[in-house]
Every structure is written in structure tokens, then in C-alpha cells.
Amino acid sequence: MEKMTFVKEDIDLINCKLQDELSKKIFSDRIHFSETSDYKFIKSIVCSFDEGRTLVDRIEKSDKIAIFGAGAIGRQIESIFHERISCFIDNHKTGNYLGLPVISLDEYLEAQNETDIYVCSKFAYEEIVKQLSERGIPERRIINVGLEYSRLNHKQYFDLPALKEHQLHEEFFVDGGGFDGSTSLDFYKWFNNISGEDDEEKEIFNRKIFSYIWEPDVDNINKINERLNGKIDYMIIKKGMWNEKTVLKFSMNGTADSAISGVGNSEIPVDTVDNVCDLKATFIKMDIEGAEYNALLGAEKTISKNRPKQAISIYHKPEDIIELPKLLLKINPEYKFWLRHYSFGENETVLYAL
């Protein structure tokens, strides 16, 4: 990761706009991480919320642990606790990952290993927990990180209490980085004070809200329609967010990581929030893999006119922690800021602007 050096005046400008001590702590830790690439600052951020503190405390009490899942969540845990990890277990991969051996569950059991197993799969955690239980691993040694990650993911963008103080009778939600539509569904639940994943099957949504879902990946568009059709009012914008109307290279892979990229495997149309959303936005969410700065430039008129609530991912580039809030203040100096974190690693830090 490229190390950054920031100007004190910029740090002070943003720090004075942060509205609570937790935000200031996360801001300080992210500044230091961008400047040093030292993961002790990410560990400090993870310890700032209950689920993270619980996980860190448990790992620190163990001499060694095993991680089931040689993927993104496992990498997050490894980045903080490399020296405590004995191996990765995986049903599909072998060899080495991040300098550690990747073995099958059979190999793990043959070694008569007694370490705790941290299940670090985004989507298959229930199946893996069942697999471990059926192979005789006691429940006390199975830590379902994937489940906790999923719970954090559903809290992301909407769990700041101050958001409710700014809720309007009619809301236009701009969902930048729509992926599978789950964030737009979470927005509707937030608006209607609905809790629990089962409620998405009920016909109880308020129709005084509308979602503009930006998603150029064809595979993801199909997922959105499968999840949302008939449940909420929405329109899919089959474009990427940018600061002008043009065509750009795009890495299309049918996941949340699809992104605008100079070495992308396809080309997509991109456009601005100002052009597409008719200056109606009342709540803007962006998680667009590093395109946030340009996308905010493309929403300048909307931000100036409406001062919409915003939840912006602020971790994709090391400079984002300064440049994104600085840009928002340039467009609308009245914004106040909060920071919150929703993962067990360096990802998923969100800037709330109200």
C-alpha cells in the first residue's frame, strides 16, 4: 500500500467536523494507517466496536488458531494476527496463501490439531459450521466470523442514530454500487423501522421512497431484480458513477468487487448523479471501489442544492480519509461528519455526512 503524508491543516479541518470521540479515534487511526501501513492501527479500529473487541480478545488468548476460508475475510484476520495463525483450511484451495499453508479439513484432522477454527466465509459459513460439527469439532472451538461479518454488513450505512433525526417524509435513495440490491432493501427497512432479515418477505414497505440503483455489472443486475422485484420501488441505472458522461474500462466479475479499472475486461457507460437523478437525491450511499471522489464531483449540484444525507466508503484509497471529506466540505461547508467501521480488517470504514 502506498504510504501517504497529509497536511496538518487538512487533518484539523476534518477533525473539527467530526461529531463524537469514536469518529475522532477512527479518523486518527486511519490517518496513521495511511501514513505507515502498520496494521496495529487497523486492530485499534476493530477494537472500537463490540463485535471486533470480542474477536480480538478471543484470538489474543490463543497461542494458535486455524482459519477456514482462504479468502477476503480470512485475509483481514491474517493482516492483524499473522503470527497466531497456524494454517488456512479450505475445501477448494491448496498450497499457500499469504505465506501460510492451505490444507484440507482431512489434513487438519489427521494432524490431531486442537486449535480453534475461525470460519471466515462470506456466503458458505452455515455449511462450513455444519461440516465441522459433523466431523466432530466441538462447538466451543468453532467461531463463526462469517455470521458476524454478515450482521455487520446489514448494519452498514444505516446504524448511525443521527440519521433518524434527518429522515424525510419522502426519500430518494442513490445506491452507488448496488451489487445485489441488499443495501437498497436495508434502506427500506431503515426507513420503516423494520428489523430482522425475515421481514424482507413481507408486504410492509412504505411507498414514499424510491431507490436509484447504480450497477453496470450484468450478473449483479440479475441479482438485484431477483431480490427486489415487486418488493420496493426502484430503477436500475446500468452505468457506473463518475464525474462526466463517457465510457470507461471496467472489471466485471459478478461480485461486490466489480470496479472501474484501467485494465478492465470490458467497457461500460458512466454518468453523473446530477445528470441521472434529476437533483432529487436525499440520501447518497457510495461503495464503488475507489471511484468515490469522481462520483462526488458528479453529484456537486445535488449536494449543493439538497445537502443529502451521505454514507460514503472511505477506505479504498489511502488518501480517501482526507480527500473525500475535504471535497464534501468544499461543495457544502455545512456538513457534519461521523465515522464508523464494519469489518474485522481494513475494509468497510464509512463516512457519514449530515
Task: Provide a concise account of the structure shown.
The chain contains 14 helices and 17 strands. It is of the alpha/beta class. It has three domains: 8-51, no CATH class; 59-148, NAD(P)-binding Rossmann-like Domain (Rossmann fold), CATH 3.40.50; 156-313, Vaccinia Virus protein VP39 (Rossmann fold), CATH 3.40.50.150.
Strand order of the largest sheet: 9-8-7-14-15-17-16
Reported by name, the CATH topology of the largest domain is Rossmann fold
Q: What proportion of the residues form beta strands (DSSP E)? A: 15-25%
Spans of at least 5 consecutive residues whose pLDDT stays below 50 are none
In CATH, the homologous superfamily of the largest domain goes by the name Vaccinia Virus protein VP39
Query: What is the average of the pLDDT values?
Result: 92
Tell me about the largest β-sheet.
7 strands, mixed
The strand count comes to 17
List keywords for this structure.
alpha/beta; Rossmann fold; 3 domains; 14 helices
Explain what you see.
The protein has 354 residues and is an alpha/beta fold. It folds into three domains: 44 residues, no CATH class; 90 residues, Rossmann fold, CATH 3.40.50.720; 158 residues, Vaccinia Virus protein VP39 (Rossmann fold), CATH 3.40.50. It has 14 helices and 17 strands. Strands 9-8-7-14-15-17-16 form a seven-stranded mixed β-sheet, sandwiched between helices. α2 runs antiparallel to α3.
